[in-house]
Every structure is written in structure tokens, then in C-alpha cells.
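Record pair follows.
FIRST:
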Amino acid sequence: MQTGAAAASGDRTAFAAIYDRYANRLHDSASACCATAMPQRTASKTVLTAAAKLTQLRDADKLRPWLYSIARNEALRHQESAARGTTEHASRTSNDRSRTRNPGRTK
């Protein structure tokens, strides 16, 4: 794929073409992958990550699967982060409630 090679060499127009071609598809992929992944954020982070790591793409013909793997990883990372945040929040809320009921009690 000529566009991938051109973008890897620093061609901004080529990278813009990659964005135009794949942004909506990455958004849809993130939506399908993980219910808690924010698809717009995932697609944006995918593009930013790809821009930063494009020189690491060894085979320009593998651009599409490479982008989708980045998107999947971003979506899963967001899902894991959301799950941790929910668990941490629930734990803090539970601890706060027990302190309210038993102000002298510590865990």
C-alpha cells in the first residue's frame, strides 16, 4: 500500500488520506468491540497512536489490520479502565458509608 509507506516516511497528506479512509471504520469497530469503549475517543486515540508509531509498521500492506489491532487495544484498555474505576468507586462509596454509620470504626 503506497499510502502507508508514504505516511510512514512523514507525508502528512498520506496520513490524512489514511484518517479519511479509516476513521469511521475504526469508530464502528470500537463500538462493536466493547460496550463501554467510547468509540469516538477510541478512534481518535487510535489515529494518534498510529501517527506516533507509524515508522514501526514493518509492512505497509498490513496497515489496515495494524490500525484495527491498535483500535481493539485502545477499546479494551478503556473498558478495563472503566471497570477498575467502577470497582474503585464502589469500594470507596462502601467504605464511606460504613464510616458514616460507625464513625469510630476504621477498616
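SECOND:
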Amino acid sequence: MPSKVRALPWVALAQVGVAIARRWRTLSGKERARLTRLARASRGRPGNLSAKERAELRALVRKLDLRGIAGELYALTRRGGRRGRRRSRK
């Protein structure tokens, strides 16, 4: 019986990491540090931040272009073509 670890699509996971890292690098070092501090201070809840900090967090996240990441990752899943789909019979 194959283990679940061996069944993971390692290439796809690496591509996801590259896509996310590419977006992360679009921020300056100062912006990355500030985003990290704000995320830690919020502890996963933006309500833990002041209104000014929430606005700053939103601006930094907007710069990451999360929709662009989603589109890029979706494109990665579509490259497999028709794998896993059933063929229609004539």
C-alpha cells in the first residue's frame, strides 16, 4: 500500500511555492517585515488591530495581488488537461 506522502504531487506543490514566493518578492523588504508584524499582532483576527493598522494591512495584501495568485494557481491545475475526466462514448 503506497503511503500518502508518496502520493503527494511534489511538482505541483513546488510550483505553488514558486508562485507565492514571486508575489511575496514584489513587496519591498520593509513592506514584507511590516506585513509580517501586522499578521503576528492580529493573531489571525484583523479585529485585534487598530483601524489604521487594518487599513495598512489591507493595502499591503492588495499589493500581493491575491487574485493574481489564484489565477496563476488555477492555470497550474488546468495544465493537466483532461486527466481524471471520463471520455464520452459515441
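COMMENT: Residues 10-78 form one domain.
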